[in-house]
Design a protein that fits this description.
With 230 residues, this protein is mainly alpha-helical. The protein has one domain. Helix content is 83%, strand content 0%. It has eight helices and no strands. Helix 7 packs antiparallel against helix 8. The termini are far apart. Keywords: Membrane, Transmembrane, Transmembrane helix.
C-alpha cells in the first residue's frame, strides 16, 4: 500500500491545471534546449539547422505561452515580463528567417512596440528595486529591460528604413534566436544550478553567450563591409 500512496502523493500536484502546465513546460524546455543546441552547431542554412531551428522556435513559443499562463494563474509579474522578453526574441528571430524580403508587417511593428513597453516597465521596476536596496530582481530586470528595449528601438528604426536586407536580416535571425536559446538556458540554470548565487543563475547564460552573438554578427557583416569599402 505504501507504493500507491507514494505515487498518489507524487502525481496529485501534476493533475492540477498548474501542474499540467508545469509538466508541459519542463518537457518543452528540454526539447527547446536540445533543438537549439543542434541548430547552433549545425551548418547555418543547412538541413539540420533549418529543421532543428523550426523545432526550437515552435517549442519556445509553446513554453513561453505556457509560462505566461502560469504567471497569471500564480500571479508573478517578474516572470510574466521575462516571458514577454523571451517571446519577443524568438518571434522576431523566426520572422527574420521567414520574411526573406525583410519588409516589416504589422505584427513586426506590434512586437517591437510591445517589447518597448515591457522594457520600460522592467527598467523602471528595476531602478525602483535598486533604490530600495533590494538585490533581486532589480539587476535582472535592468539587464533584460535594457537589452529588450535597445533591440526594440533598433527594430523600429530599421523598419522606418524599409526593414533588414541581406546580411543584416540574417544577423537579426541569428542574434534573436540565440537570445531565445539564452532564455531557455537561463530557465534551466535557474532551476537546476542551485549551488550558484541567484544573480549568477539569472545572468550567467547572458554573459556567457553574448560574445557568441557579437562574433556571429561581426562575421556576417564583414563581407558586406569589405564590399562597401572596395
Amino acid at each position: 500500500m505504501a507504493l500507491p500512496t507514494a505515487l498518489t502523493s507524487l502525481l496529485t500536484p501534476l493533475l492540477t491545471p498548474y501542474g499540467l502546465l508545469l509538466a508541459c513546460h519542463v518537457i518543452g524546455g528540454t526539447l527547446a534546449l536540445a533543438a537549439g543546441l543542434t541548430a547552433m552547431v549545425a551548418v547555418k542554412g543547412g538541413l539540420w539547422h533549418r529543421r532543428a531551428g523550426r523545432i526550437f522556435a515552435v517549442a519556445m513559443l509553446a513554453i513561453v505561452a505556457d509560462a505566461l499562463v502560469m504567471a497569471v494563474l500564480k500571479p508573478n509579474a517578474f516572470l510574466f515580463l521575462v516571458g514577454l522578453f523571451s517571446l519577443y526574441l524568438v518571434a522576431v528571430g523566426w520572422r527574420a528567417a521567414r520574411l526573406r524580403d525583410g519588409r516589416p508587417r504589422r505584427l513586426d511593428w506590434a512586437l517591437a512596440a510591445a517589447m518597448l513597453s515591457a522594457a520600460s516597465v522592467m527598467i523602471a521596476w528595476g531602478l525602483l528595486q535598486l533604490a530600495r536596496g533590494e538585490a533581486f530582481p532589480g539587476p535582472v530586470l535592468l539587464v533584460f529591460g535594457l537589452i529588450g528595449g535597445g533591440q526594440a528601438v533598433a527594430d523600429l528604426r530599421l523598419f522606418r528604413r524599409g526593414g533588414p536586407q541581406g546580411a543584416l536580416r540574417i544577423c537579426r535571425h541569428l542574434g534573436h534566436m540565440t537570445g531565445g536559446f539564452v532564455a531557455a538556458l537561463t530557465a534551466f540554470t535557474v532551476v537546476n544550478a542551485q549551488f550558484l548565487p541567484e544573480l549568477a543563475r539569472w545572468l550567467g547564460p547572458t554573459l556567457l553567450l553574448a560574445p557568441v552573438i557579437v562574433w556571429w554578427r561581426w562575421r556576417l557583416r564583414r563581407p558586406a563591409q569589405r564590399r562597401a569599402a572596395a
